[in-house]
Amino acid sequence: MVEVALSYAWQQACEKVGVSGLKMHEGTKHSMATRLKALGADDRVLAALAGDRDPRSIEKYAKLEPATIASALKRLRETKSE
Question: For residue 53, what are the domain limits?
Answer without folding.
Answer: 2-16+23-80
